[in-house]
Amino acid sequence: MKHWPEYVIEGAALGAFMVSAGSFAILLLRVANPIEARALMGVAMGLTAISIIKSPFGQRSGAHMNPAVTLTFYRLGKIASRDAIAYVAAQFIGGALGLFALSLIARDALRSVHFVATTPGEGGALIAFAAECLISFVLMSVVLRVSNSPTLARHTPLFAGALVALFILFEAPYSGMSMNPARTFASALAAGDWNAIWIYLTAPLLGMLTAAAIYRGRVYCAKLNHYGNARCIFRCAFAELTPDSERRSPSTSRTAPTAVL
Fold it and tell me: pTM for the whole thing?
């Protein structure tokens, strides 16, 4: 359990994301125009994602906040088995606790937005499944290409946050825009609404694993933000991606050995 701080951070990060999602949904409840409401929600959640990823805590854990992201990097050989299992467990627990904490102070308001549950739109379950696969595929494709580019790697949080904002605006009517099994589980648990939960447990992982299978470049690390002074617990080769003048983190020279099977 020497990596327990990273596990706690992963859980807390998704918990914070859920608090933000619930809070902004409540604040935007009175916005009558649905497109306008989604646009504002997209900006809010995109900025939330960027802030968490770029924070010192996000630098420490890598800021996956998503079991599908963690398991995809595991499939790519960048995460040890025990770390992957602990990350996924922490994400499910953290997301649920975050929404539970918000419900303690705003349960009626949170109920009015159905605990920000993600459920299929009018197109039905199959359309929602296809939409979740597609946006998950796009997100992981972009993350892999950007985070493994020497010129773009430091901007990975911005790309990820921008995609979250765009997906909420344009895709949310089809599936509710999840891409995240733990995020949907947290809302489903709070709302007691397990409608089509299979979509959100399977489609994000399928989409991201497909993106990883198609990607032909090298994966240097599983972190979404490797700039800072935090240690890295993954099988990391980030020091090979950027020259010394571009790196601010001494951790890049002492990474991977701690994460072994």
Answer: 0.92
Closest to 168 in 3D by CA, of 14, 21, 11, 18:
21
Q: How far is the C-alpha of 5 from the C-alpha of 111, rounded, in Å? A: 32
Distance CA 202, CA 179 (A): 10
Check residue 229 and give its pLDDT: 86
Compute φ and ψ for 128, nearest 5 degrees: -65, -40
Provide the token pair at 207. Answer: 């989409």
Six-digit token string for 55: 């924070």
Q: How far apart are CA 230 and CA 225, in angstroms?
A: 10
pLDDT in tens, 33-45: 999 999 999 999 9
Q: Please count the other Cβ atoms lying within 10 Å of the Cβ belonging to residue 111.
A: 12
Judged by DSSP in three states, 91 sits in: helix
Say how many domains are in the chain: 1
- Domain range for 173: 4-258
* Residue 92's CATH number: 1.20.1080.10
Q: Are 163 and 69 in contact (CB under 8 A)?
A: no
Taking the CB of residue 27, how many other CB atoms lie within 10 A of it? Answer: 14
